[in-house]
Structures are given as structure tokens and as C-alpha cells.
Write a structure and sequence with these properties.
heterotrimer, A alpha/beta, B alpha+beta, C alpha/beta, A: Rossmann fold, 2 domains, about 35% helix, B: alpha+beta, Alpha-Beta Plaits, two-stranded antiparallel sheet, about 25% helix
């Protein structure tokens, strides 16, 4: 009986499961769906480079049986850009949190999207900084309670789908951790998409955000996600709001645009063709 | 866009009443749509997607009970025993109800429950 | 070649022969310091540059942006220096020799990821063309004010290697050396130059490719199933797998064990890792640290200098010797690891050591540590002014 393994076992690093995430944490669901997506795609795992930042979801790179790197806070995308630029045959997948990608990492996100570099970003958005105990972040809803907004949050949160679309992403989708099948389909599409693709997953954080905002029970959290989500694919991302009483989910952008590594290769070839014409290019491996 | 379900009334009421987390107010007024999920079917209407066994890796379970709660056929329940983590893992209540949809396996955050085709065990 | 590459003007090549390779432009040139550094990187096999423009290092970025496509490399202008350093680590782990170049303010921004490079043992080269600081300071004026930052800039205990070119030729040679050292020791290596050397135009001789000794990182000698990414050999340096070759390893900035996985609870694991990261440089300090001694055999007074100040100091020493004064020069080619042993030996022999620097007294502290404070005098100079030989000689004799 014990010879039978979980179907995704070989996609995880041996000995690393069970992971450190809390009871009912949406990050576990994201990990499962990511691996299931790879399995369904029959993806060449050796092509993947999973890059994560700092935060609970940042630990994910230690659980996937792939080439993985756990960077400093906010710099996962810049690292991934470096990898893709020199090895265009590899596919970096950045899996990180709302704070890592959009607070400290915000600058790197918008520029990577702007370049349309072939990287997939999966963002676990749980409305706070869970790893450090539940502080507010750039996606914390107005009036929500966190350890650093004890009187209620007064800052407007980002609309991440809108931000990604505005920065130039060619695929933008948002689901929640209860939308397991649709999240998985979007992840599959994002990985196969040539260009900068972004999948936001709104997740529960029962221990930190949940506990302070009447969503301490993991099941209540999931039910809340199911209750307030409404699917509105391909509406204008600016209208795809995320509020305590309404989370607009769906695919919002799916378009085509020349991708960075292709443009780089084209440009390099032109330079070398010119040099060859002038008789200046010999003996250098390209 | 605005379909006339009772949900519409629920949300407008909420907009007016702040104080306390908005989410707790929503949960008190669960829409009818989600209550439909638990309606049991009688045996002749059962359509199996896959004929499967449910396997639980008990000691991985952290007790979130997503599988129990979100199984559309109410196949699972919490085992009164505690596992090595002090959590109640799931156990199968009635395996004849299982249609092999796979939601339990997909929704589990901890790789603690999965389905296997009947007869595929080695 | 004439007019082909500005700031790298081809002089008649005494050895004769055409340039056959675009990555090593063998020949003699009249070159800008920054450009020599870029050419040195290319000759060393660097195929990735990520950077951000900053005076006085911008010319390195500009030259790399022009030359890298010619040799099939990649130039990425990142959105800031934090991203530049992160991209350099990414490219290095993807298997490509990588570098960045900056000045003080950018160097400060890079420190966190320099720590990541040290922790993940990433071979990479960081050039700092120093300018007057702190903060924005005087962007177009020279200084040597970042030399301590090279050693202590990031948090935690770690060791780095830092080289100090004094001429345009050394900008080329020491950059090649920097790449070699970073590959051998799997650590960030700094080329700490100052704006004078960076913006100087002087003779540069680029040797033939076969005359350049190049080193590559140790590749794994065992299959993926047995590979432990941070298991070190006797030289304390682990074999380095790169992405996309089936090794599927995990690297993190968290304290980790040989498997690469986090070990955030164990004091023993932390001590073991940090000590190895430091010892791999410390134990090899004597082999790494390079100095140049001039007229030291019978010297009573020694000038310890580096960078462009060493050139003034050399003139001072020559002038002094012509007047019959027993004065010598110890030029630091390597700033870190500091050449403790050599400085101790020299200190035992001389009566006085003078340390002229274009800062308010930084490397002098290291000299004092090795030689004792009584014998050592600091000669700081702030502001865009190089010590004159006369000034150095006068202080050496007083």
C-alpha cells in the first residue's frame, strides 16, 4: 500500500514535503496547482528555473524539483531577467508574494513587464506580509487590520492586474486559491505563452491577515473567496477590482508582442552581419 | 452583468453598513447558489468521472478540512483520531458517493490526499 | 580599426598581423581606462554586463553595449543598480561570466546583492570607479573613498577580493585577473579604481588570446543524483552546476547546508557555512594578495600607496632616491585580502610608513593594524586633487 505515491511526488524535492506553510495556507494550493500544471503540460522540467523572493511563498523554490534560486527581497525578477537574457532556451518562473513583487520589487516588476521578457510571474496575494507576522502591504484593502494598521488601513491598495497590464504584460489573469482548475489552466497558458505573463492568485492567510480580519478559520476564508469572486474575463483591467466584498477574477489580457530575447537575437545578428561584411568577424563563437 | 439574484441585495446592504469586517457580514448572508453544492443525489443519477480509491497520507495533513468541506458529494468527514501533528485527517464516509472529480486532491494544500485508479495499486 | 572604436585608438601594432578575433583585439592602443577595463572583461570571457549609467563608470557600460553584441554577449541596462547586481548573479548561475560597473552611490545600492553573491558563492566582477562621496558628492571628481566599503559594505561576515589598478594597462590586466579569481574562489571580486585612472588615456597593449591565462569555475564531476551544490572540496570551494543541465539544485541567501536547503535554526550549521565562506579567502590570502615593491631592500621610509596615488608616490620615491634618501614604495595591487604578512615584514625593517590616500584615512587603518600605530602616518587628501610627488616626499621626510 505504501508503495503508492502522490502523483506529484516526483515534482517535489524529496524530504521537503510537508512544507512549512500554515494550516489552510493558500500557498500550498498554489504549489500543488503549479506542479499539476507542469504535469499536464508534460513540460521539460530541465528548462525551468523557479525563482522566488522573500516571504512565505518565497519558500516555494525549495519545494519544487527544478533548478531553483531564492533571492534577496524583491529581486527575483531582476535575477530571472539575467537568466533569460543569457540563456533564452530556459524558462524562468518567478513565484513570489504581493510585497516582494510590488512593494520592494515594484520597480523590477514594471521594467520586466515593459521589456516583455519571456518570464512567467505567479503572485500569491494574501493582502499582508505574512512571514514577518502580518504587516500591511501594497495590496492591503482599505480599513483592514494588520499589525501595522491597528486603526484600520488608510492606504489605497494596488490593482495588480491593472498594474501588470499597464506595464506591458501580454498575459494577465487573476484567480483565487479556491479556483483550482481555472488557476491551473491560467498557469499552463502563462508558462506556454511567449512573453511576460502574470497570474495573480488571491490566497487566504488564516494565521495573520485572516486572524485579524475575521477570516481566521481556513474554511471561512475559502468560502469568502468563493462568495465574493465574480468571473469577468476580458473586462478592462482597471475595473477588475479587489475589495472585501468583490473580487473580480478571470483572464484580462491575452495578446501578442515581440519578446525581448527574440529582439535581442535579431539585433545581435544584425550587428554581426555588419561586421562580417567589413571582414572583421572571425573566430568568435556566437 | 447584473443578473437578478438575491446576491445583489446582499451587496448593497453591505455597502451601507461599515464597522466590523465586511467579510463577516457577507458570510452571515450566504447566497443560495453555494447552498446547492451539498444537495445529495440518489444512486441512479450517480455519474462517475473516474472509478477511484481515495488515499490519505495521514501524517501530512494539517487539519484544514478543505477536502471535507469542498467535496461536492460529501464523501469525506473528519477522522476523530489525531495524527502525529495533532490534526484530524479526513476519512472516507461513503466511498460509493465518490465520482472521482479530484477536487479533494486539487484543493489540498499539503499533498495529503489523492486519488488513484481502482486496481492501479501495485 | 582607426575610428572604429572611439577611446580605443589603434596604434601601429609592432608585432604586426591583423586582428583575427573580435573578443580579444590584440594590438597596441591609446585607450581610455574605462574602455581598457571593458576590453579586459571581454578578453577574460565576460559575455554579460548589467548596469546602470553613473559617472565616472558610464564609459564601461557604453563600451560594453557596443562590443557585447559583436561577440555574441548580452548587454542589459537595468532599471537600477540593485537589479543590475541581481541580474549579474542570475546570469552567472546560468553559466555566463558576468560583470557590472558603477561608482559610489551605485556601489552602495549593490551591497545587499553583493552579500547574496558572497552567500551563494557566485563568481562575478564588480568595478567601482570611485568618485568623491559620501552620497551624491562630487560626481565628476576622483577619490579613493570606497575602499573600506569594498570589504565591509554588506552585512554579516564574508570575505571578498579587491584589486586596485594604477594604470590603463592594469585596468585591462587586473580585470582579467578579477574574472580568474572570481571563478577560482567563487566569490565577488572588485576592481576598485578611481576616476583618474578610469578617465585617463594611456598606452594599452592587448596580448594575443593564447597569452591570456583564463580560468573557468569547477564543473560538477558527479551526476545530478549525487550532486550537493555546497559540498566543498579541500580547497573549500564547491563545484558549481549551472541552470538547465539537469542538476536541479537549489540555492538560497538563507544559511544553508551542503544540500543547499535552508538551515535557519542550527548555530553549528551557520558557523560552519560562514567560516568556510571566509576561510576560502583567508586561508589563501598569501596566494591572492599581490603587491609591488620598489626600492624596499634598504629603505628607512616606506610609502604605502594604491591606485593613482601610487603613481605620485613612485615619482616621490624616485626623486628621493636621486637625492640619496633611503625611501621605498609598497604598492598595493590587492586591497583585500589585505597583504598582512608583507606589510608586517616591511614595517619591521623601516622607521616610518607614510600612507597617502584620496580619502580621510581608510587603508591606513589596515597598515596600522599590521605595523603598529607609532610607525604609521596618514596623509589624507580630500577633494579632486591627487597628491603631488613633492608633497608626498616632504611628508615622508618630516
Amino acid at each position: 500500500m505504501s508503495a503508492v505515491q502522490h502523483p506529484l511526488e516526483h515534482y517535489t524535492r524529496s524530504g521537503m514535503i510537508p512544507h512549512i506553510w500554515c494550516n489552510g495556507c493558500g500557498d500550498g494550493v498554489i504549489l500543488g496547482e503549479f506542479l499539476r500544471a507542469l504535469d499536464e503540460l508534460k513540460y521539460d522540467i530541465n528548462r525551468l528555473v523557479v525563482v522566488s523572493g522573500i516571504g512565505c511563498i518565497g519558500r516555494i523554490s525549495g519545494y519544487t524539483n527544478t533548478d531553483s534560486f531564492h533571492t534577496t527581497h524583491g529581486r527575483a525578477l531582476a535575477f530571472a531577467v539575467g537568466v533569460k537574457a543569457v540563456r533564452p532556451e530556459l524558462k524562468p518562473v518567478v513565484i513570489s508574494g504581493d510585497g516582494d513583487l510590488f512593494a520592494i520589487g515594484g520597480n523590477h516588476f514594471i521594467h520586466a513587464a515593459r521589456r516583455n521578457i519571456d518570464v512567467t510571474v505567479i503572485c500569491s496575494n494574501n493582502f499582508n506580509y505574512g512571514m514577518t507576522g502580518g504587516q500591511s502591504g501594497p495590496t492591503t484593502p482599505i480599513d483592514a487590520y494588520t499589525t501595522t494598521t491597528r486603526y484600520g488601513n488608510i492606504e489605497h491598495p494596488f490593482n495588480l492586474a491593472h498594474l501588470a497590464a499597464a506595464s506591458g504584460a501580454v498575459y494577465v489573469a487573476r484567480w483565487t486559491s479556491i479556483h483550482v482548475k481555472r488557476m491551473r489552466e491560467s498557469i499552463k497558458k502563462a508558462i506556454n505563452k511567449k512573453g511576460f505573463s502574470f497570474v495573480e492568485v488571491i490566497t487566504t492567510c488564516p494565521e495573520e491577515y485572516g486572524r485579524r480580519n475575521k477570516l481566521a478559520d481556513p474554511i471561512e476564508g475559502m468560502k469568502w473567496l468563493r462568495e465574493v469572486s465574480v468571473v469577468r474575463s476580458f473586462i478592462d483591467p482597471i475595473e477588475a477590482v479587489v475589495q472585501p466584498d468583490k473580487i473580480v477574477v478571470g483572464e484580462f489580457v491575452d495578446t501578442e508582442k515581440p519578446e525581448y530575447s527574440d529582439l535581442l537575437l535579431e539585433s545581435t545578428r544584425k550587428v554581426q552581419a555588419n561586421l562580417e561584411k567589413e571582414g572583421k568577424l572571425t573566430n568568435v563563437a556566437l | 452583468m447584473n443578473v437578478n439574484l438575491p446576491q445583489q441585495t446582499v451587496r448593497t446592504e453591505l455597502a451601507a453598513s461599515l464597522g466590523g469586517s465586511p467579510t463577516s457580514d457577507i458570510m452571515k448572508k450566504m447566497s443560495p447558489a453555494s447552498k446547492l453544492a451539498k444537495r445529495p443525489l440518489s444512486a441512479p443519477q450517480m455519474l462517475k468521472l473516474r472509478d477511484v480509491d481515495i488515499l490519505v497520507v495521514e501524517d501530512r495533513c494539517k487539519g484544514c478540512s478543505f477536502c471535507v468541506e469542498f467535496c461536492p458529494r460529501d464523501v469525506l468527514e473528519q477522522d476523530p483520531r489525531l495524527n502525529i501533528r495533532g490534526a484530524h485527517p479526513p476519512r472516507v464516509k461513503d466511498s460509493s458517493l465518490c465520482v472521482g472529480c479530484g477536487v479533494c486532491e486539487e484543493i489540498c494544500p499539503d499533498f495529503a490526499i489523492f486519488l488513484i485508479e481502482k486496481g492501479a495499486r501495485t | 580599426m582607426r575610428g572604429d572604436l572611439p577611446r580605443l585608438r589603434h596604434l601601429p601594432n609592432r608585432e604586426g598581423g591583423e586582428n583575427l578575433r573580435r573578443d580579444v583585439l590584440t594590438g597596441t592602443y591609446f585607450s581610455l581606462g574605462d574602455v581598457a577595463c571593458a576590453e579586459g572583461a571581454l578578453a577574460a570571457g565576460c559575455r554579460f554586463f548589467a548596469g546602470y549609467p553613473i559617472t565616472p563608470a558610464t564609459e564601461i557600460a557604453e563600451h560594453m553595449s557596443r562590443r557585447l553584441p559583436e561577440v555574441g554577449g548580452v548587454y542589459l541596462q537595468m532599471e537600477d543598480e540593485l537589479a543590475s547586481m541581481a541580474a549579474v548573479i542570475g546570469a552567472s548561475y546560468a553559466g555566463v561570466k558576468s560583470m557590472t560597473a558603477t561608482s559610489g552611490p551605485g556601489f552602495s545600492l549593490m551591497q545587499e546583492n553583493i552579500g547574496l553573491a558572497a552567500m551563494t558563492e557566485t563568481p562575478c566582477v564588480v568595478v567601482d570607479v570611485m568618485r568623491a562621496g559620501p552620497s551624491t558628492g562630487q560626481p565628476t571628481k576622483t577619490s579613493q573613498q570606497d575602499v573600506m566599503q569594498a570589504k565591509w559594505g554588506s552585512h554579516g561576515d564574508y570575505e571578498v577580493i579587491a584589486l586596485s589598478p594604477s594604470s590603463v594597462q592594469e585596468m585591462f590586466d587586473l580585470t582579467v585577473e578579477a574574472f580568474n579569481l572570481s571563478e577560482v574562489y567563487r566569490c565577488p571580486v572588485f576592481v576598485m579604481t578611481d576616476e583618474i585612472v578610469g578617465h585617463l588615456m594611456e598606452r594599452l597593449a592587448i596580448p594575443k588570446p593564447e597569452e591570456n591565462r583564463l580560468v573557468d569555475r569547477k564543473k560538477p564531476t558527479i551526476p545530478p543524483s549525487q550532486y550537493l551544490p555546497f559540498r566543498a572540496d579541500e580547497d573549500l570551494v564547491p563545484e558549481m552546476a549551472i541552470f538547465g543541465e539537469g542538476y536541479r539544485f537549489y540555492a538560497t541567501g538563507l544559511t544553508h547546508d551542503e544540500t543547499g536547503h535552508p538551515q535557519t535554526d542550527s548555530p553549528e550549521e551557520h558557523a560552519r557555512l560562514v567560516q568556510r565562506l571566509c576561510d576560502k579567502i583567508r586561508k589563501n590570502a598569501n596566494r591572492i594578495a599581490k603587491v609591488e615593491g620598489v626600492f624596499l631592500d634598504d629603505a628607512d621610509v616606506c610609502i604605502v600607496g594604491y591606485g593613482s596615488v601610487a603613481r605620485s608616490a613612485l615619482s616621490a620615491v624616485v626623486e628621493g632616491r636621486e637625492k640619496g634618501i633611503k625611501i621605498g614604495l609598497l604598492r598595493l595591487v590587492t586591497l583585500w585580502p589585505f597583504p598582512d604578512q608583507v606589510v608586517e615584514e616591511v614595517a619591521a625593517q623601516v622607521d616610518k610608513i607614510l600612507v597617502p590616500e584620496m580619502n580621510y584615512g581608510q587603508m591606513v587603518r589596515e597598515v596600522e593594524r599590521c605595523a603598529g600605530r607609532r610607525k604609521v602616518e596618514s596623509l589624507p587628501k580630500l577633494g579632486d586633487a591627487l597628491h603631488t610627488p613633492q608633497e608626498i616626499l616632504a611628508h615622508a621626510l618630516s
